[in-house]
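Sat 14:20. Reprocessing the chain from the morning session after the first attempt stalled halfway. Input below, unchanged.
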Amino acid sequence: MPKIPYRAKHYANVLNIEQPVTFDPYRKRVHHTATKEAGIAAMLQKLMIHDDYENALKLYKILLQSSRYHIANMWEMGVELIGTVEPKLLTDFLQGVFLSAPNKLRVTVFNAYIENLMLEERWREALDELELRCHRPKYHIPMLLEKLKICKQKMKGKYSLTEEKKEEDEEEY
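Finished this time. Tokens:
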């Protein structure tokens, strides 16, 4: 049997039409870390489905500390986890996510952060954050402008109540 040169061995199967094609050139290639991240997200979802929030939160914190996984892809799970296990830390978590979020997610995370501040009735902080950012074109959207209006009304109502109390106290003396 004669020796086949390397090049011929290499291309021997390329010209074989009967051989099934195992490579689909139109299939989108997925990066290895993306598949790992999807597996971790599935594991977190499984823990959350079984109401094992404490272990899921531990796993989530370890993932964030490893800094291998993007918080932009997993911040919604973090909101659910921290909101059920440690609701007092949710505002701080959302603020951290907002500061480290990529540009395409900033408005969404900022909206969630402001909503949480409003739910905790921290009107002054919400008003300061909104006034700081609402003049930028990216944040000049009706949803945030409505929240700015609500915060201003609440602050105005809060100050008017304190003034009424002061007047009542002065009348009593």
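The mean pLDDT is 79.
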